[in-house]
Amino acid sequence: MVAMSQSAPPLSSPGTRSDPGPEYRIRFVTAASLFDGHDASINIIRRLLQASGAEVIHLGHNRSVQEIVDAAIEEDVQGIAVSSYQGGHSEFFSYMVDMLRQRDRGDIRVFGGGGGVIVPEEVRALHDYGVCRIYSPEDGQRLGLQGMIDDMMAQADFYPGNQGKESLDGLDGHDGGQLARLITEIENGTVSEFVLRQVRAGAAREECRVPILGITGTGGSGKSSLTDELILRWRMDYGDRLRLAVLAVDPTRRKTGGALLGDRIRMNAINGDAVFLRSLATRGASSEIPPQIGDILAACQCAGFDLIIIETPGIGQGDAGIVSQVDCALYVMTPEFGAPSQLEKIEMLDHADFIAINKCDRKGAEDALRDVRKQVQRNRGDFSMEPTAMPVYTTMASHFNDQGVTALYRALNTTLVEYGLTPSLGLLPDPQLNLKPADVVPVGRERYLSEISDAVRIYHEEAKSQAVLARRYQHLHSCIDLLAAAEESTETLQTLAEDVAEKLGEEMLERINGFDSLIERYRQDSLSIRVRSKAREQALSYTSLSGTRIPRVSLPRYTDAGDRLIWQLLENVPGEFPFTAGVFSFKRENEDPTRMFAGEGDASRTNRRFKLLSAKSEAKRLSTAFDSVTLYGSDPALRPDIYGKVGTSGVSIATVEDMRTLYQGFDLCSPATSVSMTINGPAPTVLAFFLNTAIDQQVERFCEEQGRDPDAKELSNIRSWTLQNVRGTVQADILKEDQGQNTCLFSTDFSLSMMADIQQYFIDNRVRKFYSVSISGYHIAEAGANPITQLALTLANGFTYVESYLARGMEIDDFAPNLSFFFSNGMDPEYTVMGRVARRVWAVAMRERYGANARSQRLKYHIQTSGRSLHAQEMGFNDIRTTLQALIAVYDNCNSLHTNAHDEAVTTPSEDSVRRAMAIQLIINREWGLARNENPNQGSFIIEELTDLVEQAVLAEFDRLAERGGVLGAMETGYQRGKIQEESLYYETRKHDGSYPIIGVNSFVRDALSTSADVELARGTETEKQGQLDRLADFKRRHENQTGPALAAVKYAALRGENVFYPLMEAARCCSLGQLTDTLFQVGGKYRRGM
Questions:
Q1: Counting Cβ atoms within 10 Å, is residue 383 exposed (0-12), middle (13-18) or buried (19+)?
Q2: Are 260 and 250 in contact (CB under 8 A)?
Q3: At what angle are helices 1040-1055 and 1022-1038 packed, to 10 degrees?
Q4: Contact assessment for residue 527 and residue 538, using Cβ atoms and an 8 Å cutoff
Q5: Element housing 967 (H / E)
Q6: What is the DSSP string of 797-837?
Q7: In this predicted model, what pLDDT tens digit does every residue of 813-824 receive, in sequence order?
Q8: Which residues are CB-contacts of 796 (< 8 A; sequence separation ≥ 6)?
């Protein structure tokens, strides 16, 4: 790809700069495109922009064109930077340029990037259409990260307020453009004196009097989330007839002059014309508010709003500058303020009309409520009233429909009405039965990860102690034998040996004395094992072309009893605790661990691909990639930023009928068929589609065989048998989505509750062959985590599900076998032992900490080769990396393996590239001689040492997570996301400066850059897109009478805390994916994004 030939403006050509004054800043809106959760790169970009002096309004992932353009206009920015990795980019960027022009902001510079996904032809077309620059991988290679940032800053370096306003006309426009420009002029000191006098005079008029609510508080107290929840209630209570202006202030970094204006990303209730939001930076002001705030508030009053909210940045104990600017002040804090005496130092407790103790689910919240009430009472000198009458509220803004927030809202609204706010219409519903959600991990169990770390460490210490005893036992018996041969007394040694034997115990003695028998057993020609409840003889060797007898399992040649014992305790043969070498004794004969990944266009096209991939394989391991519209629980639509993504980078599935088409021709209950569905946010609905499809398939088979429909009892039996025999997994891992990949839809608590509902449904219906969740490290790695972080966070997430399900009253052995793990294999050395460490930690914790049985102790280890190591430059080299990653996965005894195609760096893989990717596995499994051995990693000094090093690093990370309140507590502070982003930035920095060599990318590079113009681009066709829209409309028309009652049943169950998956199974037969998603939003709330 030759970047400079793509019709782009020359790099580093600055725009025309005016000189409005010293406070002028370049402002950017940054986001990932609609239905795109890959926000690692845009997070790096926004950090570098901020460090280069820009004020950055970061919107995060999954943002529509409308949301981005609305933000750009209200924030009056000079530039928009968007990453787009999920396809549909041509439609997305073109639609954005069109919308900006329609709203008279065609001057805003639009920048984008998508790795190699946006190919040169599309880049040229977008440049010609009006996009300022799409950065290609070659641009990054040539310019480096900072070079691209410098180019963006130069091209966006203009002042949007050059044409100053001369009147207040249009200030009350619903698009907010005129008000936004006036605020820019006031903020930068370029507003004319004439207009400024008009603003001040207008705000002084009684008819323009608008109540102002000020919200301030400590940093990290959840002010933005609480503000958003209050806005949501105002909109609901007033039927969206109230117009609100929100001013969100964040501090400027004095060192760089940049600022991260981060309130928009946390807010879900600001979309539409009813709310205007403007982010402001303090720009060196000594207080938490900029000096121009008075005039900016006056401008908002002139714009005809009904209520103005100003939220200021986190403050310490002594700053109360907001009080003089507002009618009503709300101070937000958390329970962790220290000793009660610290409350005496908080000046805002003297001035605040209301105090909210947010995050009141934390320890000490009750004590905090008592102490703050007493302090407010003392500050006010109001001893005639009880402390409970003080205006102090406990809230959990992170919880959907929190009653504490509702109580605070009602009190605030009553006070603001006294200041001129129109009384509400009373449309806010009273709290329903879906009240306080149960804690996902109960209070008092937050240190579960430290308990697991301790259990694993204790197990290792005991293993070492037992090894010392075993060695002593052997030495004593050797001395006894020598003395006995010399006819000397052995009485004392016999006593010592008996004492050691007692300390070892019967089990350890059996291991010591039985080791020779173990070796002999594996030297036989065959071994009797049980597979799927059937006994069969397993050959224990194979013969090479040279005639060498190669053992299937190799055992150590140790003679020392201590070495033999510790090997059994920490390694052991495959299929035996602690399963370090593998959870099964032998790989399945004549069944490669290959997974066939497909997903493109509509269901019919993907079905054809599945049949092609599995045509010559007895095992049908069907892994389904969904398009991003489906991944975000939406229905296909004509709107350009949606339409471009339909059937692109995955298959479009909107109804249960699509699911039937997708798997038509495959027996979903066959032992040889296993379906994997890579989907997370809408996983419950897609799983319901799938299970209904499997049931319908068996009903159809009954009808064909019996020539009639089944009666009620027969139908019930078919349903039960199907659920007990269907095989596969749905990813559903919502924890890693919050930490890495971001296809979260609903509030975290509600999502986790639904996952537990699915597991309970599985227990009730004896679904034992289908994984209820595939706990994924792959997406954590793709977001930028290094292998140790991937492994530690993924295992920690797995143990969090364990704690959550135990808290729901489930038995460990009823659900642990339904959990599987899915990792990414990259190029770093730690990947070589990732499966070994994962299996050992899981097994030891399950047995020692939870008392689980052997089936629950087995961690199912599924691998996909790294997507992060697929590069758009020299794509042919990707197959080399993939081969190495596949080889270490096979050596590490993975339970299934997906090899990425080399062209997945830029597109959904072609038929030919998928065939090559599958050939990698087939060559390893069938041609690479050592792959037939079950434990090739065992016995290597570096493997053993690396296993111990990685395990220690994982346990240390568990301890760090435990210090932050476990996985959920750490998520609340953004610990995992921040860690992943830091590691991603470290990798990208070293990649761009060349200190981390990547062949064909930053070293061993062609003199003439290669082109990918000949790559076959897989995109959803117009016929497929239109066909999907038509089928969806027809489905909705045919089921319109059933939809309402079915959706009402889902809401009813959710509001009453019942198992939602039961009515969801029924609703999935007559409702579309989008309809069900919208319904669940109403009862579960929307996911709140984080940085």
A1: exposed
A2: yes
A3: 80
A4: yes
A5: helix 966-972
A6: HHHHHHHHHHHTT--HHHHGGGEEEEEEE-SSGGGGGHHHH
A7: 999 999 999 999
A8: 449, 957, 958, 961, 966, 967
Based on its alpha-carbon atoms, the radius of gyration of the chain, rounded to whole angstroms, reads 32
Distance (Å, whole) CA 266 – CA 64: 16
User: ∠ CA(251), CA(252), CA(256), 5° rounding?
Assistant: 155
CA atoms within 13 A on the CB side of 532: 6
Q: For residue 505, count other CB atoms closer than 10 A to its CB.
A: 11
State how far the Cα of 513 lies from the Cα of 510, in Å rounded to an integer.
5
The pLDDT, as a whole number, for residue 589 is 75
State the angle between helix axes of 293-302 and 177-188 in degrees (0 to 180), rounded to the nearest 10: 160
Cα separations in angstroms, 411 against 214, 236, 378, 479, 754 = 15, 16, 21, 85, 33
Provide the pLDDT for residue 432: 57
Is residue 395 within 8 A of residue 356, CB to CB? The reply is: yes
Q: How many CA atoms lie within 13 A of 731 on its CB side?
A: 27
Q: Write out the two tokens for 793.
A: 């966070």
Residue with tokens 């038929």: 911
Please check the confidence at residue 8 and state whether its pLDDT lies above 60: no
Instruction: Report the C-alpha gap between 28 and 55 in whole angstroms.
Output: 6
Compute the distance between CA of residue 1090 and CA of residue 748 in angstroms, rounded to an integer: 12
Tokens 């489930």 appear where? Answer: 810
Q: Which structure tokens are listed for 209?
A: 């009097």
**Residue 963: what pLDDT?**
95
Determine how β-strand 244-250 pairs with β-strand 275-281.
parallel
* Cα distance from N-terminal residue to C-terminal residue, the chain: 32
- Phi, psi values for residue 1000, rounded to 5°: 85, -10
Supply 943's token pair.
């493997």
3-state DSSP helix/strand/coil percent for the chain, to nearest 5? 50, 10, 40
How many Cα atoms within 13 Å fall on the side-chain side of residue 393? Answer: 24
The amino acid occupying position 421 is L
For residue 262, give both structure tokens. 């981060």
Reduced to 3 states, what is the DSSP secondary structure of residue 13?
coil
Asked if 898 and 886 count as a contact pair (C-beta separation under 8 A), the reply is no
Backbone angles phi, psi at 724, to 5 degrees: -80, -15
- The residues pairing with 901 across neighbouring beta strands, listed in sequence order, are none
DSSP string, 535-579: EEEEE-EEE-TT--EEESS-------HHHHHHHHHHT-STTSTT-
Structure-token match 């619903």, residue found: 174
Here the contacts of 587-591 (C-beta below 8 Å, separation 24 or greater) are 587/893, 587/934, 588/531, 590/618, 591/618, 591/619, 591/672
What is the three-class DSSP state of 31? strand
Report helix, strand or coil for 526: strand
What CA–CA distance (Å, rounded) separates 162 from 901?
51
| pLDDT above 80 (res 14) | no
- List the one residue out of 116, 133, 205 whose CA is nearest residue 168: 205
The CA angle 829-454-952, to the nearest 5 degrees, is: 15
Ordered alpha helix ranges (H), 282-424: 293-302, 348-351, 365-380, 403-418
Quick: pLDDT tens for 773-791.
999 999 899 989 999 999 9
- Residue 897: strand pairing partners: 594, 863
Which token pair is 565?
């014992």
Which residue type does 790 have?
Answer: Q
Give the pLDDT confidence of 120-166 residue by residue, as tens digits: 999 999 999 999 999 998 888 889 889 999 999 999 999 998 888 88
Going from the C-alpha of 395 to that of each of 348, 356, 360, 379, 407, the distances in angstroms are 18, 7, 6, 22, 9
φ and ψ at residue 626, rounded to 5 degrees? -95, 150
Return the exposure string of 185-204: e unless at least 16 CB atoms fall within 10 Å of the residue's CB, then b.
bbbbebbeeebbebbeebbe
Q: What is the β-pairing status of strands 212-217 and 109-113?
A: unpaired
Q: Which helix (H) or strand (E) holds 111?
A: strand 109-113
